[in-house]
Design brief:
The protein is 62% helix and 7% strand. It is mainly alpha-helical. It has a two-stranded antiparallel sheet.
């Protein structure tokens, strides 16, 4: 799991997003437990509170369930529904980015170049 202090995205959100991607990709099966909160915090060198916040976010989204004394396990997923939710979020974010680009006076080509550059950095 790669975390960035400079991305502008809170660490807990980065952790939750990483687990969401892994769950959707089938890296965690239904009923499988996520790493312990303390263990993950230790491995990532972050606070237990940050890890707990990420897991609570996953629980709020229905991806995992907390089991007292055991940890968090992966719920059964309707992957098509989850993918559709993510696509709607992407579309909303892109729509917002296009509006901001228009306000800034960027041309379509400049916006596409900016997106291409960001995509290259992410890979």
């Amino acid at each position: 799991m790669r975390l960035s202090q400079n991305s502008g995205v809170p660490i807990y959100q980065q952790i939750a997003d990483s687990f969401k991607s892994d769950i959707l990709a089938g890296k965690y099966a239904q009923g499988e437990y996520l790493p312990s909160i303390r263990g993950l915090a230790r491995d990532l060198k972050i606070s237990v509170i940050t890890t707990m916040k990420a897991y609570e976010l996953l629980e709020q989204e229905g991806l995992v369930t907390a089991e007292q004394g055991k940890g968090f396990y992966v719920n059964a997923q309707d992957s098509e529904m989850l993918i559709e939710q993510h696509l709607r979020k992407v579309e909303a974010s892109l729509t917002e980015a296009i509006a901001a680009a228009r306000i800034a006076g960027l041309s379509d080509d400049e916006l596409k170049n900016m997106l291409d550059a960001l995509l290259m950095v992410q890979d």
